[in-house]
Amino acid sequence: MTVTAQRNPEFDALFDGMLFSLMSWQQLTEFWARINPSAGWYLYAVGEARPELPADAAHVSAFIAEIDTLLHKEHHEEYCGIVYADDLQAPRIVKIYDPNHLGTSCGSGKHKILPGWVMCVAAPSDLAPAHVVPQNRKRWWQGFMDLIGAH
């Protein structure tokens, strides 16, 4: 039996549309502060099950805090440059690339590298990474899910 991937044209248009990078850590800090946690964000760890429902405001706030900590800890650069959004003032989609699996996040390489995490106000389409998601990332996501009490 073949399973058909779930698609959402609204999500696909946002995901494949023009995005802007948050180049500095200061820009990222200011960007997080502009996110409305109550906007109906879907939180998607690529390689895990696609979320069926948006997260509540408390979970979105917790995710932002946890992912910000992870990025600062593991992206050993003086700049950010691995978080992208369709609109830096009022985003509808945010792509967050895994600092330990960057490849060519700008998409100029032979193989498209998917982000590690996606926040979107549209229900996401299924995304299947071409690489195996490392166990430490699966454990990080499960730890986050345990932290927020989601199962």
State the end-to-end distance.
Answer: 27 Å
What is the overall silhouette? Answer: globular
Oligomeric state as shown = single chain
Mean pLDDT reading: 86
Structural class: alpha+beta
Question: Number of helix segments?
Answer: 4
Instruction: Point out poorly predicted stretches.
Output: none
Task: Please indicate the percent range of residues in DSSP E strands (runs of 2 or more).
Answer: 5-15%
Largest sheet: 5 strands, antiparallel
Structure description:
The protein is α+β, with helices and mostly antiparallel strands and 151 residues long. The protein has one domain (9-144). It is 33% helix and 11% strand. The protein is built from four helices and five strands, in the order αβαβαβββα. The protein has helices at residues 9-16, 25-34, 57-74, 135-148; strands at residues 20-21, 42-45, 83-85, 93-96, 117-120. A five-stranded antiparallel β-sheet has the order 1-3-4-5-2, with helices on one face.
